[in-house]
Amino acid sequence: MDYADKTLKCSDCGNDFIFSASEQDFFNSKGFVNEPGRCPDCRAIRKRQRPGGGYGGGGGYGGGGARQRQMYPAVCASCGKDCEVPFEPRDGRPVYCSDCYSTQRQ
Predict the structure, then answer these.
(1) Residue 39: exposed, middle, or buried by beta-carbon count in 10 A (0-12, 13-18, 19+)?
(2) Tally of CB atoms within 10 A around 97
(3) Cβ neighbours of residue 68 closer than 8 Å, sequence gap 6 or more
(4) What predicted TM-score, i.e. pTM, was given to this entire model?
(5) Does the first or last residue of the chain, that is N or C, have fewer Cβ atoms within 10 Å of its Cβ?
(6) CA distance 79 to 98
(7) What is the pLDDT of residues 3-19, one digit of tens each?
(8) Do 67 and 60 touch, CB atoms closer than 8 A?
(9) Contacts with 81 (C-beta within 8 Å, 6 or more apart), sequence order
(10) By C-alpha distance, which of 95, 90, 70 is closest to 80?
(11) DSSP string covering 42-59
């Protein structure tokens, strides 16, 4: 598909910017259906303001690591040591500390 450069208006700063043919091709290849609403400068500013500095900024979901995982107190079913786990323990289900969990998996 042939694209031609387009002039768009930034929704943040109000300045005109060029949405180049190569950017349009890139957007199309990624399956994006909307044109960008911000100029490259405002996109960069917005990206820096996000936790993790970019898309998908939390935990193991694409980088950044800014989001903290909620941890729950538990007692290891194997060694009896107090520990924290990243899920809410349920009655009747054993919970293991990281050391015992590694042993259980093997």
Answers:
(1) buried
(2) 20
(3) none
(4) 0.47
(5) C
(6) 11
(7) 999 999 999 999 999 99
(8) no
(9) 75, 97
(10) 95
(11) HHHHHHHHSGGGSTT-ST
| One-letter identity of residue 4 | A
Pairing status of strand 72-75 against strand 16-19: unpaired
Q: Which two tokens stand for residue 17?
A: 């910017």
Taking only the tens place, the pLDDT of each residue in 50-93 is 876 555 544 444 555 556 788 889 999 999 999 988 888 888 88
Residue 81 token pair: 């040591």
In the chain, the amino acid numbered 70 is Q
Token digits of residue 31 = 């399956």
Which of 21, 22, 19, 28 shows the shortest CA–CA distance to 4?
Answer: 21
